[in-house]
Each structure stands twice: as C-alpha cells, then as structure tokens.
Amino acid sequence: MTDVRGKVNIGLLGCGTIGSGVYHVLTKNADALADSAGRPLSISRILVKAVDEPRPFEVDASIMTTDSREILEDESIDVYIEVMGGLEPARTFALEVLGRGKSIVTANKELVAHHGRELMEAAAATAAQVKFEAAVGGGIPLIRPMEESLGGDVVQKMLGIVNGTTNYILTQMSVEGSDYSDALAEAQKLGYAEADPTADVTGIDAASKLAILCSIAFKCGVTSDQVYREGIQAVRPDDIENARELGYAVKLLAIASRANGGISARVHPTMIPLDHPLASVSGNFNAIFVIGESVGELMFYGQGAGSLPTATAILGDVVNIVRSLGRPPVTRRSYWSRPGQVLSIEETKTRYYMVLKVVDRPGVLAQLAGVFGEQQVSLESVMQKGIGDSAQIMLITHEVQERNFRAARDSLEKLDSVQEIPSVIRVESA
Amino acid sequence: MTDVRGKVNIGLLGCGTIGSGVYHVLTKNADALADSAGRPLSISRILVKAVDEPRPFEVDASIMTTDSREILEDESIDVYIEVMGGLEPARTFALEVLGRGKSIVTANKELVAHHGRELMEAAAATAAQVKFEAAVGGGIPLIRPMEESLGGDVVQKMLGIVNGTTNYILTQMSVEGSDYSDALAEAQKLGYAEADPTADVTGIDAASKLAILCSIAFKCGVTSDQVYREGIQAVRPDDIENARELGYAVKLLAIASRANGGISARVHPTMIPLDHPLASVSGNFNAIFVIGESVGELMFYGQGAGSLPTATAILGDVVNIVRSLGRPPVTRRSYWSRPGQVLSIEETKTRYYMVLKVVDRPGVLAQLAGVFGEQQVSLESVMQKGIGDSAQIMLITHEVQERNFRAARDSLEKLDSVQEIPSVIRVESA
User: Which of B7, B209, B357, B414 is catalytic?
Assistant: First the structure.
C-alpha cells in the first residue's frame, strides 16, 4: 500500500513517559502508520537527558544522544517530535527546527500557550508546520476538528473538563464524600496527581489548554496569562452535596465565549446541571463541549492524558505532516499574530452559588436581599439550611456581571448578621 | 487573509432542507470560510427538481436549473456538493463528476454505504476526492478524526447512537413511560420522524451509517446489507423500566468490533450501563463511542441531523478539498476495494436480557436453568417478578455466542412451563 518513496526519519526530542510511548506505538503499529502516512515512519534519533533512565516502554538505546546539536543539525531528519515539556529549551529547539524548514509536532501545552505566536510565525517563514493535537485533551481529536471540520462555522462558546487530575479529585469528593486533601492524596497514590500538584489544582494547566483552544476557535492569539483562574482547593464536600441537591455537579471547567466584542476566558470550579453531558464525565477523563452557531452542541470525550493516548494524538499529527511533506502547508494560522481581546473577569457575566453563615434572627433575609438589590443582583433561589447557630443561607443568583456580584459580596461581608461566606461557586447552564 | 487566486465555484446538486441550509451558511459565513479555505467560495449553480419549491432558507433562484446536464457539464465548477439523497440519480451524477476529475462532497449515507467502493475507485482514477463527513453523525466531526487523528491507532470497537429519531423515541419512552406508538406519533408531530418512519425505526438508516464507519475504521469495504439489524418496534415500556432497575438504559446502538479475524457489525436495541457515557445521550442527539488500542475510549457527541449542523459538516469537507485543489489528494482509500469479512450474527458474542412468562409452579426455574446449561449459556442474574398468573422470570446471561443463545431460546419456547418470551434485548458493557 505504501508508495515507493523512502522512509520518513523522525527526531524525537525527549524520551520520558510520553516519548517512550510514542516510540512504542510507532514500532508496534508500523504497518498501519505507513499505510496512513503513505511512507514508512522511523524514529532515527532521540534526544535524552540520560540514556539509562527507567522508561515505561523499551526504547532502542543505540539511537539515543544527550547532545542536542547531534539531533537538531541532523539533515536526514524530516520531522521532529517535541515531548520534553517546559518552556526552555523546548522553545529554542522548536524555533531552530522550524528555522531549518522542518516541521514539528509538540505535546507541550505551556510552549504553545506561551509562545504560540512566535512558533506560528517561525513556521510560516519557512513553510514548515507546527502541530499540537496532544497539547489539549491528550488523545482526543480536538484541534484538527476545531480547525478543519468547523472551518465553516463560528464557535460561540466552549466549556471543557481539560484537567484529569482535578476531575478525578472532584469525582472522588462527589462519590466518596471525601474532602479535598484526602481525595488529592488518593490521586497522588494512584499516579493521577504529581507530588507537587500546584499546576493542576490551581488551574494553571487548564488555563494553558484554554488559551490554545481560544486561539484556534476565535482565530487570534491568546496566552495563558490572559485566562482568569481559580483552583479547586476551596471546594468543600458540603458544596458538592448542596450542588447535587440543587441539581448540579461541581467540575473544574475551562470556559470561553465571545462576549462584548471580546473573549471571556476563565478556569474555575463550576456548577453545571446534572443532565448536562459534561456532568457525567468522571474520573480522569476529559471532555470539551463546544457550541457552534450552525453546528449546535458538540462534545469531544476521551482520555486527556496518559502515555499511549497522547502518543496516538502525536502520531496522528505526524501522519498528517508526512502526507503533505514537500507541499506548501495548508494550515494557515496567521491569525495567531492578532492578539486576542480578553475581557477582565469583572466584565464576565455568569450566575453564582453562595453560602452565608448568618445569625438566626428576624429580618436577616430582608437585609441580605437589600444588599443584593442595591447591586442589581437578582436571586434565582434562596434556601435556609439549619437553625440557630448553624443557620446557613444558600442562594443562587440570576446572571449578573462579576463586578456587581463582587460589590454585593463585599457589602455582605461587612454586615453584622453575616458571620462568614464559606463558599462561592459560579453556575453555568450550557 | 485570502490569497489572490480566484473564487471557487461550487455546483450544488439538490436544494431541499440540507441544500438550502448549505446555501445559507455559505452565504452568511462567507468571510470565515474564505479565511479557512484560502479562497472565497461561491455556489454558482444549483440543480433542483423545481425552482419554486418551498425551502427553509432563501436561495437565489437565478442560479437554479432543472437540467442536470447544465450543471454536470459546467467546466467552471470546481467542486460539487450532492444533497439529493437516494441511490439514483445520485450515484450516476457522482460517478460522472468524479470521472471529470472534479471532487464531490456528499451527505448521502445510502450512496456511500452501497456504492462506496465504486466511488473511491472512480475518485482514485482521476485523483479527485470524495468526502462524506455529513453522512454519519450530521454535524459531528467523525470521519476525518477517525481517518486522520486515529491514523496511528487500531480501532477495536465502536458503539454509536447514530439515529436521532429512534433515540428520541426511546428517550420519550424512558422519560414519559409512553409506549412505542405514542412516542413515534410525538416524534412525527415534532418533525423528528418521517411520515413513513421505516428507515429509521427498523435500523436501515443506522446500518448504512455503521457500514461507512466500519469501512473507515477497519480499512475495508463494508456495505449496509452486511450489517445485521433489528429495529426498536418491539421494545416495551416494561423493558425500559426493567432495564433501569437493573442499572441499564435501552438505546438503539450500532455496534462494530474486530472479532475472530473478521468484523462483527450489528444494529439493535441494546442495554448499556447507566453510567456509560452513551446512556445519557438523550433526545435526538447522536454520539459515537470508539475504543482504540492506544487511545482508549473516545466519544464524539452532537446533533446528528438538521439542516445547519449537516451544512457545517459539508462545508468543512469543502474547505478541506479547496485547501488541496490542484494537488494530488492525500486521502487514500484504496482499502475500500478489499471486501470486509463480516461475521454472521450467529457468531457474535454478547450478553442477553430475556423475559419469560412462566407458569408458577415448583421446578420451573430448575427446568429453565437446565435448558440454558445444555447450550452452554451461563446466567449472570435471574429475578422472578410477580406471582401466580403474572409470574415472569427476568434474566441476564453472561457473554455467549448468539448461536447458542438462539438454540436455548428455541428449546425454552417448546417447554410447557413457558407461556411466552415477550422480550429479548442484547446487553453490552462497553
């Protein structure tokens, strides 16, 4: 089935969990890949930190090198795969490769989220390609469908579960009733969370992924520091239970939409209706829900991380590049140079769930209602839970601008009758 | 953003619900499409049965013709879109267009499912392209992700809700407790079911779509008549209620997998666990769940029909073709000429739910168990519902070959103690 042209030489930059997975799948599925790509694929050289590191899959040590010049300057290499992670030296290597007119596939979300514009411009300058399907949603085909299949539509909104660690933790808290730190410890024990979980639990990882999705969907350059974020550390088992009573699930969502001539882009714990397709995405799975003007609602679901799913996405990109080697690239991303106009979180409109610990005396509810009214925050539902010292008010607002909600919250905190506001979570319908 | 080459002329074959939707989206999103495709797109001629037909979207009547020669022989047309439906004259027209070296995008599932091989061979002969993203799952990006993003993986199994009409009916039966005919009448009233619903409710439509998915996923030619099918007409509200008690939802699934060196391909009502992502796909939505060797579980969800979602998929294909106009096509489907080895349903292995009306006397259960044992059918669970005249046995088997299950069923029907077997539904876990 393959044509007569010779094999494609691939330079692999990095060979940890993902890199060795790429080597494994490429070797195992060599025939299917050659069939898809039209030419046999072969990893001809691998850049490693140390040859003897333990790796989840066996890799031919004879093609490894610790000298970056040896692989970057190897003229026989046709395509590079970057799976080192981190900003440097990944950025410098990628720019060098692109400068030589060689295409590169990367799984590095930070790299694309921070330096996307620089990469796209470097690629355009030499007619090389940058592909990064694996950077968002692991093995889920997402970037290419968004760029190509939806090329005839206008994306209005995206809501994504793009971080498996936090989704695992929130699922555990929901199913087992465990609190945040126990669920985190469990995730760490199972290898779903890193020893230092900061990037996951504070939403940094999700913000990088959302920046990339925004750039693709809204055709402009969005960087991760433009994305507002709140992590899941403050989510309490009580909130998850309250949410369920109210008909919602609590998820860390990455949300972006067109709003007021700009883009709203934010990552935060979110209550979504239990019958929303995202609500039942559990454990360490990822899913991205997209609303297009014409196509309506779409959802892409799958394993957002892991060595083999990520390897599949990388190899899909490699196949795509190999199919068009020697031709001018068809993917046009000149829009990445146009900076995205991201709104401040204060301008964002959403609904809010709030819990207040209040003193249990007549007139308190009227006082609260008065404060909300002053800030044009109207309430969708109000419930009192408990009486006496444990009295709590649980409410959900109608849609309101964050600025007004914050003003109301500040005023509430100053009231004598309000002892504490233990929880605020944003609420989305779709 | 668009380059200096001239506009792309599109010939639209058919202008009903979908065709007028294509015209509408192409006109409305002209700028975004030009940006994605690299050249402006324009529908220059439209083949219609009658110029004055009522259409959901306004279409320029001055470019309509009722003379097929006028559009098929128009040398200025670069790409064709076929949305006439049905086998003829769609097939003849498509082959003629491909014979002239022009690419064609079709939404016609019957055409691809019946004549896929002929179309792919005609396209290969003139280096033209056939694209059919809209033929399965409406607006859901599916064909291209399966072909390209999963090019480095091996698909093991697919389970799809690919018919919105039957999913709407089964959802209504589940939510409202209504019976099949009432739910069908409701679907017809809302326009989700045709006046003659045969193709939907008997699984013909789903079988065509599954044949296309099998061809793509398993890289061989599968036609719709190779797909085993059972419709939803015999599903009873009782079955849906029983299923829920047992922890399952009832869906019309299109299922395909690699099995015994061949392919198992079947469409039938199926019980799937309530926590499976397909179980919560409700109303007229579609979803296709794919298990790949490396990528693991994926699901693609969205609107499987409707004018605008389908138009989006068609225009995504058009953009893809325009981007590579004048270059040799990269999509290789020579595998379509290799006939798929589809197993007989008797060789398929699955689990079964069965309800038996039995006479309520001692020893009946032992008698049933004996019959199952003779045919190597082992039982996962057995429940008795009701007593006396209304006694029913409800059981679920372990995985067993259909051949053995059928033999057991035949023997059961001959027992004096079995009055009736009102229901048998296959059960899948993933």
Answer: B209
| Residue B7 token pair | 């506009």
Q: How far apart are CA A162 and CA A158, in angstroms?
A: 11
Taking the Cβ of residue A197 and every Cβ of chain B, the question of whether any pair is shorter than 8 Å is answered with no
CB-CB under 8 Å, B294 with A139: yes
Domain topology for B8-139+308-335: Rossmann fold (3.40.50)
Q: What is the pTM of this model?
A: 0.94
The class level of CATH for A143-303 reads alpha beta
CB B149 within 8 A of CB A133: yes
The Cα of B315 is separated from the nearest Cα of chain A by a number of Å equal to 5
Domain with CATH 3.40.50.720 in chain B: 8-139+308-335
Query: Does the beta-carbon distance from B323 to A330 stay under 8 Å?
Result: yes
Catalytic residue among A109, A157, A209, A251: A209
What is the CATH code of the structural domain delimited by B346-427? 3.30.70.260
Q: How far is B150 from chain A (nearest CA, A)?
A: 6
Q: Choose the CATH number for A348-427 among 3.30.70.260, 3.30.479.30, 3.30.70.580, 3.10.20.30.
A: 3.30.70.260
Instruction: Name the helix (H) or strand (E) containing A56.
Output: none
Chain A interface includes B133 (CB < 8 A): yes
CB–CB contacts below 8 A, A to B? 213
Whole-number pLDDT of residue B357? 94
Residue B327 contacts A, CB cutoff 8 Å: yes
Q: Do B309 and A296 touch (CB under 8 A)?
A: yes
Distance CA B347, CA A42 (A): 39
Give the ipTM of the model, two decimals please: 0.91
Beta bridge partners of A423: A355
In angstroms, rounded to a whole number, what is the distance separating the alpha carbons of residues A96 and A73? 9
With contact defined as beta carbons under 8 Å apart, do A25 and A62 qualify?
no
Locate all alpha helices (DSSP H) within B324-401, ordered by sequence.
Answer: 364-374
From the number of C-beta atoms within 10 Å of its C-beta (0-12, 13-18, 19+), residue B7 rates as middle
Q: What share of chain A is helix, strand, coil (3-state, %, to 5)?
A: 40, 25, 35
CA distance B334 to chain A (A): 8
CATH 3.30.360.10 domain span(s) along chain B: 143-303
d(CA B25, CA A185): 50
CATH of range A8-135+308-335; options 3.30.70.20, 3.40.50.720, 3.30.450.20, 3.40.630.10: 3.40.50.720
Which residue out of B298, B303, B320, B327 would a mutagenesis test of the A interface target, given it has the greatest number of A Cβ atoms within 10 Å?
A: B298
Per-10-residue mean pLDDT of chain B, 430 residues long, equals: 70 96 96 90 97 94 97 97 96 98 97 97 94 96 91 93 97 95 95 94 98 96 97 96 95 95 96 94 95 96 94 95 77 87 95 94 89 95 84 94 96 94 93
Q: Which residues of A touch B301 (CB under 8 A)?
A: 277, 297-301
Q: Is A131 a catalytic residue?
A: no
> In chain B, what is the straight-line distance between the N-terminal and C-terminal CA atoms, in Å?
46
- B164 contacts chain A (CB < 8 A): no
Establish if B400 touches chain A: CB-CB under 8 angstroms. no
- Inter-chain CB proximity A319 and B29 less than 8 Å: no
Tell me if chain B has a CB within 8 Å of the CB of A152. yes
